Amino acid sequence: MSLIGKSFKKLRLLLQHGALDAELSEEVRFHLETKTRDYMVAGMAPRAAREAALRDFGCVEQMKEECRDMRGTQWIENLWQDLRYGIRMLAKDRKFTALAVVALALGIGSATVIFSAIHGVILNTFGYDKPSQIVSFAIHDSSRSGEDGREGMSLPEFLDYRDRNNVFQDMTGGFGGFGAAPVLYSTGQGTTEFSAWYTTANLFQFMGTPALVGRIATPDDTKPGAPPVFVMTYKLWHDQFNSDPAVVGKSFTLNGVLRTLVGVMPPRFRWGWPDIWIPFPMDRNQISSDPNLKEAGVWPVGRLKPGITPEVAAADLNVVAHQLAKVYPDQYPKQFRVTAHTLADRVLTPFKTLIYPLAGAVGLLVLIACSNVANLLLARATARDREIAVRASLGASRVRLISQLLTEGLVLAIVACLAGCLLAWVGIRKVVPLVPYNTFPQEAVIDMNPVVLLFGLGVTLLTTVLSGLAPAIHSMRGELQSRLTRTGKGAGGGFRHGKLRSFLVVTEIALSMVLLTGAGLMMRTFYALDRLALGFSPQRLVSAELNLPKGVYDTALEKNNLFRQLFERLNALPGVVSTSVSLVAPPYAGVGSDLTIPGKVHSDTWNTAIELCSEGYFKTLGLSILRGRLLSESDVASGRHVAVINQVFANKYFPNDNPIGQRIKFNILDQVPDPGLKDIYFEIVGVVPDVLNRGLQRPAGPEAYIPHTITGFGDRSILVRTAVPPAALLPTIRNQVWAVDPNIALTNAGSVEDSLRKSDYAEPEFLLVLFAAFAAIGLLLVVIGIFSVMAYTVSLQTHEIGVRMALGAQPDNILSMVLKKGAALIAVGLVVGVGMSLVLTRLIKSRLWGVSANDPWTFTGVAAVVIAAGLVACLVPARRATRVDPLVALRYE
Amino acid sequence: MGKDSLQGALDLLVLKILQRGPSHGYGLVQRIQQISGDALQVQEGSLYPALHRMEQADWIASEWRSSENGRRAKYYKLTAAGRHQLEREQENWSRVTGAVAKVLRFA
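Above: the input entities. Below: the structure tokens describing the complete assembly.
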């Protein structure tokens, strides 16, 4: 018979097995009755005849079992029976089932959430074709180790690299993106801005991604005379244009140029993270004749040829770089080397350092959950000893017994898996929006997908096996006889595997200590950052970049006039305390430059940060003068070559002299395309306190403040100190800017405090929240674990307690007896936990700040929490022990 | 002789007897005892698992009929496949016993 035929037959047998069993009984009955009749006919008494017939037949039930076995469907029927039995048993013991399911679900759910993040961001990051081939490279100055190296280059240089390298299939480069290169789009009513990524026209072919709607831009679109085009991201198309396909093919005025929208890219294509892409030509003639492109700096990437690794590429690029150093001597340090990294490496490192500690924490949580459930299962197995012994004596094989226990475990696992996946789904929805901005590339999508679900199933399997080990070991050992007669309670009863249970609880305590210590260290890091002295107050401070229309404010005089008018208006507003020009907002500094101080010789590099500002800067930031004077209005009005320096500058470069009156030169000004800046020296007129200028986590570096009017070159930002919450004032500020000149766009405008929160506090906060959540869950599980062990121990010792009380023990004595046992467990767990923590916290060292990985205060605090929680867990069973009625206890044997 | 050969022998007996005509389980037992003259003492019950196994293998087919004493009984009869199997088993059996006989003569 064919396989399908056989399967159908088996199915029919399964469904009819009740009827088939009845038939079998009938058949046997017929045989026995006929035999009995024959014996009676031969002269035997009815009873003797029946007995003889039965004897001849053999064991009826066993034979029936064998017949059933012959059907070949027995294993399915067994499974079904086990399943129903398992569900009944679990439903009966509701407390156990609930606890076990909750513990497992928490473990499975958390692990799945973390894995979904890892999968979405690390394993499946980009929607580009073969992203592992995409590589960026940097030129590192050999004399300045530890710095990042130069990645940007001019377009001619980029084209040279493209022509001369041997390792890339193609290269593409671009600039812009979020925050940079805003493109002003004139709608009928007004002006909005998009962020644009200007790119070499081969970007879309390079990435190998087709357009979702319309077509991609190609180098043909940038040929001389071709109509200008641009491509839109899915996000913008969806958010602003309602995913209307009719918008493709329309023309938009962008920055004064009419461009046609030729296509929209799919949602996961976000190269450069802009709103739109604007292609530019790659032809050398076209580039050299366009002033915008001639001066542009691009960020290049290359696609490796098959079989080439980033290291091989770096070596080849190094050769090319040394050739090009002769062509562009200004761009290359005296000694340098080239490194290359895949896109994933470069972009994912911040995320990896964030997620790996969390993955470790989740692993610990899963182990805690497993120990918990193992303990619960073990207690249950011990209590069911008798039932199992009876079944064994009735003829159940070891296989049958084990399979029944496993099936029960399977039911538990399935329920826990469903609950865990549900938890994970909710968790992903809630947690992903909390992830700090820019931690992971926007192309990555974190959600529940089949791979993640599969992982959830895998974790379920793992936890089931781990949890099931303990009771399985328990079932395999032990003799039948002793189990049948043992009541499960009583003097020495049930204490075998007490060691196993204690081991599990100790493990739980130790693991949760590690989690708590991690959370504690994160907490201290966050507080340290939060209370860091910035040198200025970031509350009620607005910063905004001004995007000035070209050709209008090119000279220092024009810029000065602009800001005069603007600040006059702003200062008149109620709610504005003071205003200033600046390059960037603290805790960062404007521009870095090498220093020349006449009369001083030095071998190492002397550099400083430079901030171009107006006279209101110091009041706006709240910097008082320490020595000398601040910049004055007339300094700014005349563009005088004076500078105010900070303390670090004074101490580093003028340790023994008075810096006031000294002259210094900022070498970088020589490179600015403004002839009036060549070879000028500034006189130091004052010293102010330090303000953090290299981010939050590094101490302040030397900084000099000079009037912004020394040149008309470059962009400007404004800082506004407000008396009211900044968000309220932003629209007014914008309107005042437009009142002065409607063609000026305000970009990146916002409260400094908010942007600080997003960039510097968000990550430690995020880590803290998650670690704390895991640690809290872990602690809860531990409390449950200790509680269940102590409760079980007490129930086993009911008889003994009864005896003691009958002999005159006071409730206090019983209480202390029980608590002592609990304290012993906690103590051992504590010791092991401290040991593990000392070793494991070293792994999160890189995420800590302001606290050492072995900080004694944190360890002490965690130990106190664990002791407290443990003792609380022991209290209820201990009190129950004192309420044992000796009469009842003694009667129960 | 292992379990298999004993099982094979039982199969052969049953198939051979059913070749004469359909019979129920009890009848088969009686026939075996009749023919072998009580030399083969086998637990009567052990026939039934064998019958069920052979039915699974489609060598015999069953149907419920009323028996000679008026009660319903399950009758088994040989199928075409069963007939083939009978021939095969008979050949096998003669081969094995022949070989054993040779060994006993010459060893």
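Note for the figure: Chain A has 28 helices and 23 strands.
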